[in-house]
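User: Sequence for MFS transporter below. Tokens please.
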Amino acid sequence: MTEKKKLSFWQIWNMSFGFLGIQFGFALQGGFMSRIFQTLGADKDAIPLLWIAAPLTGLLVQPIVGYLSDRTWHPKFGRRKPFFFFGALFSTIALFFAPYSSALWMAAGSLWILDASINISMEPFRALVADKLPDSQRSYGFVVQTLIIGIGTWVASNLPWFMTQIGIPNTAPEGVVPDSVKYAFAIGAVVLFTSIMYTILTTEEYPPEDMDAFQKEKEENKGFLVGVKEIFSNISGMPKVMRQLGLVQFFSWFAFFTMWSFATPAITEHVFGATDTSSAAYNDAADSVGNYLGTYGLVSMVFALGLAFVASKIKINRKLVHLSSLVLGGFGFILIYFISEPWMLHICFSLVGIAWASILSMPYAMLSSSVEPKKMGVYMGIFNMFIVIPQILAALGGVNLLYKLIFGEAVVNTMLLAGSSLIVAGLCNLLITDRSVTHD
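Assistant: Structure tokens for MFS transporter:
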């Protein structure tokens, strides 16, 4: 196998820049879709169920997109870039129209289309890092992605607050989403499309090493049923490290789905004492929640910058970095229950930001060192199952059942559940013992 050339920081930056737009989409949906649902009359306990279409679609879309991208090659358009483009196109449309929903089913449908479309772009971006970089640069590459994701999270999470500061109305009649949110989603749509196009235009992909073998394999494995059979074969034959990482991912993403679903109702009620969704107090508090959520994006950016510097100079222990980061994030969620002043949320979400930076880099660096290069796309897609299955279980009532059963009825107890889940995720890293994937 030909040794891949080491790339410069700016080459890695260019190939990862599309993640800025992807994260604009994720941050806006994660920070403000529950606010849109509440504005349209959703009960707090119904919010997770309104999110369910998104992870259900990801469960189906990701392995298929990964499988197809592994078997795609065009001399001009490459392997992963066609998926970047079509994912960006549909994501942009869904992101723009989501805040104009006039009924809950419309908002839930917009979220479904948005999440499915982002997924079409996202995992090929993960696979691109593994395609382009030698193993010695994998941690560095995924950390640079995380740096860009942190920038996107911070800016996008603050957009509705910024719109309010420049005079765009933050309140609206009952059942109508405020203009500040609409403007924020429109800006996010533009950033999403243009940043992905930037990566498409500035990044070249490597062709298959053996084009004749690549074409022969495509010819021998034509047909939908053949593809489905191969995907299931890869699932049953996934590497041991992938199964171990899957357990870590399960508890990590259960925690973050809980945050995305319940941070707005939990914090507006527990910290700000605001419950009337048509009131100025609630909308100001919801903007503040977005601002505090932006903190975890900002801190993940700074933490990723530090990791990028360290990973470029010395070898790091991926497992220990991930374990400690997740435990710190878990304590950040738990602290939300105990704070007495809103500004303390910056401390809580700073700790969460450390976990977020690690979640977006370390598992993928470990995974990419344990799978065959020619199956990188399909395994990145299958790996997404460990992200969407916990979200599906959470949406079907797992969050509502567990937080009430373990901690009590108050909605802020969802943050205790998220913190506990993240600490369990951190400890699950102890199951990973293969030094070839834990040390870069």
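The chain has a mean pLDDT of 84.
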